[in-house]
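Ticket #4471: structure export looks truncated?
Reporter: QA, pipeline team
Priority: medium

Steps to reproduce: submit the single chain below to the structure queue and open the exported record.
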Amino acid sequence: MTLPEPEHHRPAWIKALIVVLAAAVVLSVVGSLLIAFRLFPRPSATEVSAQDARDACQKASRRLLRNPDGAQWLDAEQWRATGDASGKWTVVLQYRLSNKDGASKSGTADCTIQHEQATNEWRLLDLVEN
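Actual output as written to the record:
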């Protein structure tokens, strides 16, 4: 003869305590995530894209040079970069170029470049030497 298994009945107050503690844990996790996203927001497109625009203009300009190895970019991190909400940027490049004969030239150029959000690619619109 086997004995019936004992039933485990928890008092109602213990069940209520478990529900309250579970809810508190869920709310604290959700609250922590919300606070984290407010304290550490993603950088805005302007903050990210200024340096990206500088890099993209430098790469686009380099592709147009006959002697890209002779290009020196002066103070690249300081180049003035202005952009708008459409993703169009104008960057003032500072450079020193040397040809294969050793002649060199320094100057600046205005690079206008467009960031395409859909493809995350840059397109050179204009490059004008000053």
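Status: closed, not a bug. The export was complete when the record was re-opened. Leaving a note from the reviewer for reference: The helical segments are 12-39, 45-64.
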